[in-house]
Amino acid sequence: MVGPVASSVEAGPEIDGFNLVAKFNYRGGEQGCDPLTQGRRIDISYYNIDQAKYIAQHSDAGFPANLRFPVFIKAKGFRAVKKVTSEGRIVRNAQWLLLDSEFHAGTNALVDLFRFEPKKVKVFNSDLMLTAGRYQGYWRPGTKPVNYCFSFSKTHDPFMQFNYLKRLWASGLIEGDARFGAIMENGLEAYVKDLQRAHGESGRQVLAGNEGLPGAL
């Protein structure tokens, strides 16, 4: 599973050596397929609602082209893409198991992949949202900058997701590249500190104009 974080590590040959390669929001062409850092292969692509709607509006009848399995995080996205293709399916979302939260696309993809009992799953180019940027072409054209503090507070609980991934990693169910492994090894407290360093300032700016609220998250 290859995440959307830009990387300079030349893991492309290792990625291409897997039986199946899963990526995110693939719209065609060379997007996300740098041979050195991301690998040329892409068999499975997972889509959020925003990307699915964009594809439905802008893709031709050739979508999904060379994809073997387009998979949609939400049913609404799958319904939108039906305008251009009958291919694809919806993930079996685990949100009903969670306390007023939901997994982000990467964790949902892992849950989905385990349904098919893979012998091995390795995570590349993913750092649990510590990096706000994504590789060039990942976001659809016109996408506004994402305030991840809103994402954490409204939708994606970073504590829950870290603990879930740490359990998978510690149990040997998933492997990861050096970046992912270091985050798991350092533990939850270090991860939260890194998360605040990466995104805390945007949250402080939001809170600055609200009387009586603290200036840090």
Please provide a brief summary of the model.
With 217 residues, the protein is an alpha/beta fold. The protein has seven helices and six strands. 38% of the residues lie in helices and 8% in strands.
Description:
The longest helix has 30 residues. The protein has seven helices and six strands; from the N terminus they run αββαβαβαβααβα. It is globular, with a radius of gyration of 18 Å. The C terminus is likely disordered. It has one domain. α6 packs antiparallel against α7. With 217 residues, the chain is an alpha/beta fold. Strands 1-2-3-4 form a four-stranded parallel beta sheet. Strands 5-6 form a two-stranded parallel ribbon. Helix content is 38%, strand content 8%.
